[in-house]
Amino acid sequence: MVLIEYTEYVFDEMVKRGVCLDGTNYKLMIIAYCWTDHVLQAGNWLATMIEKDLVDNATCSLIIRAFSGKGLVHLVVWYSEKMVQMGLNPNVIIFTCLINGICQKGNIIHAIEGWRMPPSMNMVLEFGRLLF
C-alpha cells in the first residue's frame, strides 16, 4: 500500500471510530498531498476544511503556493478571495503567488505595480480582476 493511501485509510478509520478530528488532521492530509505533488486532491481536503470551518492562514498559504507552482492561477485567485471572505488576512506568500500568476498571464506591468503596493485584503480582489 502506498503511504498516502495508508494515510487515507487511517484517517477514514479515525472517522469510523468516532475520533473528533480537528484542523491539524486535515492539514496533515493537505501537506501529504502537496508533498506527493497531488495538489488537486489537497484542494479537496482544503474544501472540506472550509466546510467545517477549520481552515487557518498557514494551510491556505500552503495550498495556494502549491497551486501557484503548478500554474493553476484560477485556483490561486479563488482560494485567495475565499480567504478574504472568511476573514483571514493574506500574507506575503499569497501576494507573491498572485503576482506570479499575473506574470504567468503576461501582465508584467500590473505585477510590478502590485509588488510596489503595501499588502491589503482589497489587493487580493484587485489581483483577481487583473488575472481574469
Automatic annotation (TrEMBL):
The lineage of its organism: Eukaryota, Viridiplantae, Streptophyta, Embryophyta, Tracheophyta. Keywords: Repeat. It comes from the Eukaryota. This is Pentatricopeptide repeat-containing protein. Belongs to the PPR family. P subfamily.
